[in-house]
């Protein structure tokens, strides 16, 4: 269970209080966990070097054929999803992450798979600075995968940055954990115990990592924010992108609730449990 600790706040954006040192704490936390993720079974990099594709089935379907297209992956971590798109035919993929060790791991993995920097490039940058950090001014597809937005205090600034990198005729695709699930009790997922609309920072002091709960870690303070579905969709719509669809999925990638079962390769509630959205995905296009 995560433990909240008090912090001093300042303001960034119009509706988010931001604890001092939040970015440095989050970066130190992620930097320390990269070796655990590279060596562990959760990402299974030895297996990935063979299968080369870790994307979820709904992502493959909703994004569609990427053959010959350029793709930018924001907040790419160690690059497995980024390189999965290269494996599926993207002409060029670029991954961006604020953790230098993560970017180094992604570059090493790309080299292992035989992708040079002309096919798969990785850059170290804060996501808010992506527009000036990536090698091309725009991409056919801007992709953001699961577990990324909670690390950002200002969703409108993220949307503006991401949208600015979508080429004419291209689109942004986002898959993210559903904020409704974060309101429910951790044991059974049947009781609402948290405020859905809170914009207060959530400050945790929690050892280990989702990839290895028993990992010994030192940099354990992290800061997260919850963004409602309405906030995310409205932020993207305000950039001028056209929302093509918003889909909700009753599956997860990890045992978020104590009563989860694994079926069909996903973590799910038992069959007799009321279904709730656990992941959402959306696609927003830029008209040519």
Topology record:
Elements: E1 9-11, E2 17-19, H1 22-39, H2 45-51, H3 57-63, E3 70-74, H4 80-87, E4 92-97, H5 100-112, E5 120-124, H6 130-133, E6 139-144, H7 155-164, E7 166-177, E8 202-205, E9 221-224, H8 229-238, E10 242-249, E11 261-263, E12 266-268, E13 279-285
Parallel strand pairs: 3-4, 3-6, 4-5, 6-7
Antiparallel strand pairs: 1-2, 7-13, 8-9, 10-13, 11-12
Helix pairs in contact: 1-5, 7-8
Protein name: Ubiquinone biosynthesis O-methyltransferase
Organism: Streptomyces cyanogenus
Domain Methyltransferase type: 72-172
Number of structural domains: 1
Task: Give me the number of helical elements.
Answer: 8
Largest sheet: 7 strands, mixed
Strand-residue proportion: 15-25%
Spatial shape: globular
For the secondary structure, the number of strands is: 13
Would you give the CATH topology?
Rossmann fold
**Approximate helicity band:** 25-40%
- Indicate the structural class: alpha/beta
> Biggest sheet, strands in spatial order?
5-4-3-6-7-13-10
Commentary on this structure:
The chain has 288 residues and is α/β, with parallel strands linked by helices. It has one domain (9-285): Rossmann fold, CATH 3.40.50. 27% of the residues lie in helices and 24% in strands. It is built from eight helices and 13 strands. The protein has helices at 22-39, 45-51, 57-63, 80-87, 100-112, 130-133, 155-164, 229-238, and strands spanning 9-11, 17-19, 70-74, 92-97, 120-124, 139-144, 166-177, 202-205, 221-224, 242-249, 261-263, 266-268, 279-285. The protein has a seven-stranded mixed beta sheet, with helices on both faces. Helix 1 (22-39) packs parallel to helix 5. The longest helix has 18 residues, at 22-39. It starts with 8 loop residues before the first strand and ends with a strand.
